[in-house]
Write a structure and sequence with these properties.
alpha+beta; 2 domains; Transl_elong_EF1B/ribsomal_bS6; Alpha-Beta Plaits; 5 strands; five-stranded mixed beta sheet
Length: 180
């Protein structure tokens, strides 16, 4: 039951005026929320730009002499310096957060290839989340960090109805010995 003074005020204003007032309030709320979200998106874009690795040099033109040495030289020219590992780890953890995945730790082991004069890091990332989010995470990582290679992936779910999926992701990144 509406109190009498309120009922009289509603009758005096009329239905169209009340509807216009409600719509005005909703419009103001929508505009302020949009402004806040635009500022938040710009802030997140700035943060992501800080994590991006610099682009590698363009691939070498195919040469007439396709010898093992020329292929090896082309491989070495595309390697990232070993000092890029911290930036790469920041990208991995930032992408996991952005894709709403649980990634609490990563195991990685360096492997020195003396005969090839390069390093490789074998990384294992146990993640939990929705299956689609895990796939989107891997896709985003491979686009943002071209030096990263997906070496293996396995999925596990305790129950077919469970929305949470556990995945074990295995990556390899090849790096130059020197930071030059």
């Amino acid at each position: 039951m509406i109190p009498l003074p309120l009922a009289l005020a509603i009758r005096r204003l009329g239905g169209p005026n009340i509807a216009a007032g409600i719509l005005s309030i909703l419009l103001i709320a929508l505009l302020s929320t949009t402004f806040i979200l635009d500022r938040r998106i710009a802030s997140i874009k700035r943060q992501l730009d800080e994590f991006k690795l610099p682009a590698t040099s363009a691939p070498a033109e195919p040469s007439a002499s396709n010898t093992p040495q020329t292929r090896y030289d082309a491989f070495k020219d595309r390697l990232r310096p070993k000092g890029d590992v911290p930036a790469l780890l920041r990208i991995i953890f930032a992408e996991a957060r952005q894709h709403r995945l649980q990634l609490n730790q990563m195991d990685y082991r360096p492997e020195h290839h003396t005969h090839g004069e390069y390093l490789s890091y074998h990384m294992t990332a146990p993640v939990k989340g929705a299956y689609g989010d895990i796939r989107a995470f891997v896709h985003a990582l491979l686009l943002q960090a071209p030096a990263l290679a997906l070496n293996g992936i396995s999925f596990r779910r305790d129950d077919a109805r469970s929305p949470m999926t556990e995945a074990r992701l295995q990556f390899v990144v090849y790096l130059r010995e020197s930071d030059k």
